[in-house]
Design a protein that fits this description.
alpha+beta; five-stranded mixed beta sheet; globular
């Protein structure tokens, strides 16, 4: 499956790969990069038959992680241009106890909106538990880092529509 997304910048196609986005991000939260990429891959085709003009996409998401934020910014420039809003109320507390947790992305484009919501089974409970834990031991910090990378590389080969369900409105 493709690990890239193409949008338009003033009518000119521009493509972004997971590796490029993750490098821009700095690599600390590759799972968040993968989630935002998969959400965009799932939702954008439902908003237009052609690549979207990146500066016309407005985003509301419950996902506040830096990997996701940087992925959304690089592809759409929505953060810099004031078109990205984090609204935790559209998600749940966490994906284990209150699905879908923060894994909700609403993309609006030219009067249409597509909402991508994570499907069950793509976020491990151990990842959520370690992420929420205060005062992690060095071993727990290392394990959490492993889980971030594991999630990204587990999700990347999966078709976006199998990771995120999308509805339009």
């Amino acid at each position: 499956m493709s690990n890239a997304i193409t949008v338009l910048d003033n009518g000119h196609p521009i493509s972004f790969t997971f590796d490029g986005i993750n490098a821009y991000h700095g690599g600390g939260f590759p799972g968040g990069v993968a989630h935002a990429l998969k959400a965009m891959q799932a939702a954008f085709p439902l908003l237009s038959d052609t690549p979207l003009e990146r500066r016309e996409v407005t985003i509301v998401t419950a996902f506040s992680g830096p990997g996701g934020r940087d992925a959304l910014e690089m592809v759409t420039r929505a953060l810099t241009e004031g078109r990205l809003t984090v609204d935790k109320s559209i998600g749940g507390k966490d994906i284990i106890t209150d699905p879908p947790g923060p894994y909700v992305f609403r993309f609006s484009y030219r009067g249409r909106t597509a909402e991508a919501v994570i499907k069950p089974g793509h976020v491990k409970e151990e990842f959520v538990t370690l992420g929420a834990k205060k005062d992690k031991t060095p071993d727990e910090v290392a394990r959490h880092e492993e889980l971030k990378a594991e999630m990204a590389y587990r999700l990347l080969p999966i078709p976006a529509h199998e990771v995120y369900g999308v509805r339009t409105f």
